[in-house]
Amino acid sequence: MAQRIVLSRFILAFIAGVISVLVFHQGMLALLHTINFTSRSPYPMTPTAPFGIPQVFSSALWGGVWGLVWAAIAPSFRQKNYWIAALLFGALAPTLVAWFVVAPLKSQPLAGGWQPAAMVTGLLVNGAWGFGTALLLSLFARRQVFSR
Question: What pTM does this model have?
Answer without folding.
Answer: 0.89
